Amino acid sequence: MNSIYKFFLVAGLLTCFFASCDDEYGARKESTPVFESASVSPASFHFGDSVTLNVTVADPATTLTTLSYEVVAENRVIASGHIPVDGERAEVVHPILVPLLSDQPDGAEVSVNLTIDNILKGTASTVVTGLTGNRPVYNQLYLVTDNGSVAVLKAQSGSKDKYEATELAFDSAFSFKIAEKINNDNTVDYSGAVYGNVNGRLAMIDEKGESAFVYTPNAEITRSFVYDNYAFSVNTSGGSLGANDWSLSAFADDDVFGETFRTLNRTLENGQTYLLVGALADGQNVYNPDFFERVADNRVKFLGETGAYTVYYNPVRKNIFVGVENPAYPQYLLACGYGLGYPTKVTTQEIGAVYAGHTRVHTDWGFGHVMNYVLFRRVSEGVYQGTFFTPGDHDHYAGFKPFENTGWGNEKKAGDFTFTGEQIITGDNDWTIPNDGEITPSANYRFTINLNTNTVHVEQVTL
Predict the structure, then answer these.
(1) How far apart are CA 422 and CA 343, in angstroms?
(2) How far apart, in whole angstroms, are the C-alpha atoms of residue 431 and residue 376?
(3) How far apart are CA 339 and CA 364, in angstroms?
(4) How many CB atoms lie within 10 A of CB 431?
(5) How far is CA 178 from CA 91, 142, 164, 192, in A?
């Protein structure tokens, strides 16, 4: 009898103990959360924009944990997420990106399903309705390739979702993004809509998104590009390269001065215009202005005399110049020495990051390869023109001399000429740009050597 009494006494005490205990969240008391208000603003929006979710939730007795949402357009869930909450009452203001997906109708009915949970798995749901999602309509879009080419995609007449570019000169395969806006330097402006690759398909992306890829089968060049912003699809068409079309697919690989070049051997005709395909049309490329005039983003006119040339393209320096076998007077003058470089917009730091120790200037005393010297083109009888970056922006010094051939023939001493224009050259023998306290600005300078009058005119040029 005594043991039975003790058993009931202990059981009673344990019951009282557990009944009086609270956990860290307070008394474990079943309750149901309540949505006091729920709205989305604005009620009408464009897919691809963000809307603001405004929710007030409460629970009379239990701590809240998670607010979940689903954005539904025409019975398809297009966005979802979870928002942590805390306390027994929470006011939530949260942005939601409403994505533009393929095949979304315009003026679609949109709703937002909301669910709130508490720590005891109590739950409540509500739906925000009366929302309208509209497809964006653009006046035009920009096709921006990874190699720097840009084309305007114009809206097709009669189709508000299709955008087209024709008369292109793109490679048969290329990576790209489609942008609503671009910056002044032709890079993508992510403040507008941008489309690229998401899991192997076209979709709207942000700054961290990847480029999409397209291939035009049975073609050497892509001529047209159509983007369907409803189906998120691309169609291209193309053809064969023409006799005056330049594409890197026809260029060979070469190594000069420890740098990688792409080279093309061919006859160039004076006054002929050449179409630039793909990377060759990059706006950052500088075509040697003594031999080429860039008449359009994807076209250059050859200014030199008709003949056999090697075209040199440096994908790091992003410049293009020509070389000839055994260049010599009277067609050319050659300048070698220290501190000259074919013009480029790429900085010494960018060049040095790829080719250690290399800078924007590259000449040296000698004629072992085309980077040792630079060519002056004959512009008229006895008159020669060369445009070069000088002095080096790493040391602000240059010392060089023009010659008539690669055998050091008939050197042109500085003391034999009168210099006009920019007074940057000193010396009686070498043509020297000194670094003696008064620094000459490193820039592109055009030297016009007149052997008829023994004068040299120097002017700074902007390319």
Answers:
(1) 18
(2) 15
(3) 8
(4) 27
(5) 38, 6, 12, 10
- What's the full length of the chain, in residues? 463
Neighbour order of strands in the sheet with 418-421: 418-421, 455-460, 443-450, 383-390, 373-380, 332-338, 398-403, 431-433
For the chain, list the domains and their CATH numbers: 34-134 (2.60.40.10), 140-239 (2.60.40), 245-460 (no CATH)
Average pLDDT in the 186-201 region? 95
> 79 - beta bridge partners?
71
- Residue in the block written with tokens 């060519």: 375
The tens digit of pLDDT for each residue in 328-371 reads 999 999 999 999 999 999 999 999 999 999 999 999 999 999 99
Amino acid identity of residue 11, one-letter, is: A
Closest CA to 363 of 384, 346, 386, 382: 386
What proportion of the chain, given as a percentage, has pLDDT over 90?
89
Q: What is the pTM of this model?
A: 0.77
pLDDT in tens, 39-54: 999 999 999 999 999 9
For residue 14, pLDDT over 70 is answered with: no
Q: Using CA atoms, how far apart are residues 241 and 281, in angstroms rounded to an integer? A: 15
What is d(CA 116, CA 426) in angstroms, rounded to the nearest whole number? 81
Write the pLDDT tens digit of every residue in 79-114.
999 999 999 999 999 999 999 999 999 999 999 999
Secondary-structure percent of the chain, ordered helix, strand, coil, rounded to 5? 10, 50, 45
